[in-house]
């Protein structure tokens, strides 16, 4: 198919066929991870800047690995030690980097809409959203869909239960959109104080009892408590949260016997997930990490002209 995207701000405008095409490309890219020499010249000569205003391990490192495996030149920028400390605006920082020859900017920012703002302001460089506030994390949704697709022949009609802090989670929003596009039945659960009011807009169902949400699910997706984004008092304590909503072996046993246990990381053990579940046979958490490199390689390859 002819690829029409040069940026990735969100996946709400993507078609199912485009997600499937990216998955096909990611399968080819994942083969590269097992080769003795993990590099192809697809993006040789391209300059990519990773512009991270928030802490990150998995997203930042996997983007960097993806860029280097495709032979792009990579600059890792961080807010500390930069001119933003002197008052430089996001727009001026991005314009400066584009003037230095950046072909693409990968941005993570605490403000909702930061990636979309850059897309409008930059003249030539592509923009990839690595997470903007509590709004969207599109590459996480794509790697989650890719991981699930490796275990099931089709996601059509499958049930995914997303349990945890929905209202503060950019992963939750992108996953709800992405898995619905793939034809999944999406159910969410967690404290009512951590639920957004617009769940019906996404076509998902809320069940206050996590046992009912997980019952018969093909995928159980646990979300980290976003303590850095939320007010105090939204639930009594972390211990109380684990007792009511934490994923232990008893909860997972209610799902289908081949159900996948997923988590975007970093995990808080004995908060949203028990170690026996996180490290158990149904867990694909580390597989998600590996998928992240392959999916981001495929995305950069398609959007930056490697396919052409």
Automatic annotation (TrEMBL):
Its EC number is 2.1.3.2. Pathway: Pyrimidine metabolism; UMP biosynthesis via de novo pathway; (S)-dihydroorotate from bicarbonate: step 2/3. L-aspartate binds at residues 86, 170, 224. GO terms for cellular component: cytosol. Keywords: Pyrimidine biosynthesis, Transferase. InterPro entries: Asp/Orn_carbamoyltranf_P-bd, Asp/Orn_carbamoylTrfase, Asp/Orn_carbamoylTrfase_sf, Asp_carbamoyltransf, Asp_carbamoyltransf_Asp/Orn-bd. Carbamoyl phosphate binds at residues 58-59, 108, 137, 140, 265-266. It catalyses: carbamoyl phosphate + L-aspartate = N-carbamoyl-L-aspartate + phosphate + H(+). Gene3D superfamilies: Aspartate/ornithine carbamoyltransferase (3.40.50.1370). GO terms for biological process: 'de novo' pyrimidine nucleobase biosynthetic process; 'de novo' UMP biosynthetic process; amino acid metabolic process. GO terms for molecular function: amino acid binding; aspartate carbamoyltransferase activity. It holds the Pfam family OTCace_N. Residues 6-148 form the Aspartate/ornithine carbamoyltransferase carbamoyl-P binding domain. Residues 156-302 form the Aspartate/ornithine carbamoyltransferase Asp/Orn-binding domain. It comes from the Bacteria. PANTHER family: ASPARTATE CARBAMOYLTRANSFERASE (PTHR45753:SF6), ORNITHINE CARBAMOYLTRANSFERASE, MITOCHONDRIAL (PTHR45753). Catalyzes the condensation of carbamoyl phosphate and aspartate to form carbamoyl aspartate and inorganic phosphate, the committed step in the de novo pyrimidine nucleotide biosynthesis pathway. Heterododecamer (2C3:3R2) of six catalytic PyrB chains organized as two trimers (C3), and six regulatory PyrI chains organized as three dimers (R2). Belongs to the aspartate/ornithine carbamoyltransferase superfamily. ATCase family. This is Aspartate carbamoyltransferase. It comes from Thermovirga lienii (strain ATCC BAA-1197 / DSM 17291 / Cas60314).
